[in-house]
Please model this.
Amino acid sequence: MAFHHPLGQHEGALHLAVGQRLRDQPGHLTLAGCKRILGARLGGGVGEECVRGPQQPALVAGGTMTAVLDGREPPAATPPRLARVRPVAGSLVRVATYLMMGFSAALSAPPPLASRALPGIELARGVCRDPDPGGAGPALARIGNLLNTAEQLITAHDAHLRRALRLIHAAATIAATEPLPA
Model:
């Protein structure tokens, strides 16, 4: 099963068999992005069988469409696995929002510039320094470390824009999907 790749480097995926993966090469975001998506799905209550599929592509990774294209019946619909309303930490919502704005700013006009993400990173890092973070503390600490590294890459004018953007996106994913401790 192949995943969309924004740079058009996915043509080789047409020849993959189930279970084979595209290589994670520099500039090839396929596996890094998929790992984040599938990890978020597992954290969101989607069962292992839907994420990693025993004999066929995982349902959340295109297994349903593969079944339809192969002429098989799609799997039966299942009820949502998470409650429609869930408690979230306001600090994590703020971090996710700041980072998505920063990520979008970096890509908003050609050429993409990671430095346009710095205001969002600064705002999110301020949230991560909350002296009383409550149950969100461990997630905020992980996010803060990612953002510190991203900021260092950006201010050092790292030649690989994607390194910093991957860290920003990973931090936003943690902020958006981290469950609160019970």
